[in-house]
Design brief:
Layout (H helix, E strand, L loop, with lengths): L16 H7 L1 E5 L7 E6 L4 E6 L6 H31 L3 H24 L15
Parallel strand pairs: 1-3
Antiparallel strand pairs: 2-3
Helix pairs in contact: 2-3
């Protein structure tokens, strides 16, 4: 048997899963809303629209809301199932258990995502030189 060579990464390598998920999250300004951020998950197109109030949200918080949108997208299938069961059969204790589990998952996974994709401040303009 001849040993196999490891595939070398190509310059045009496909996007990572994280990049594909981030591409499905859109963040837009909504200065007229009262909440700092709202999330709308579209199960059909598998996208998330995050609307933020720019008066209440700075760049770092905007980044955090975008990452939370990724997590909501990942968990959206489970949430949809839970909502369908509740709509069909009524509300059970299991639905409340799911909601608590989703909340716990968001709290546990969000720091992990922040570790993988830390906030990078936008480049500040260079100070004007005094000549």
């Amino acid at each position: 048997m001849t040993p196999r060579k490891k595939a070398s990464p190509k310059a045009d390598a496909p996007e990572s899963t994280l990049d594909r998920l981030l591409a499905r999250v859109t963040v837009e300004d909504a200065p007229d809303q009262e909440d700092a951020a709202t999330f709308a998950v579209d199960r059909v197109t598998r996208t998330v629209l995050v609307r933020v109030n720019p008066d209440l949200v700075n760049d770092e918080a905007r980044h955090g809301y975008r990452l939370r949108g990724v997590l909501k997208l990942v968990l959206s299938g489970y949430a949809a199932y839970n909502n369908d069961v509740a709509r069909r059969y009524g509300r059970f204790d299991e639905g409340l258990v799911y909601e608590q589990a989703e909340s716990d998952a968001l709290m546990d996974l969000e720091p992990l995502l922040h570790g993988l994709l830390p906030f990078e401040a936008p480049d500040a303009p260079a100070p004007a030189s005094e000549d």
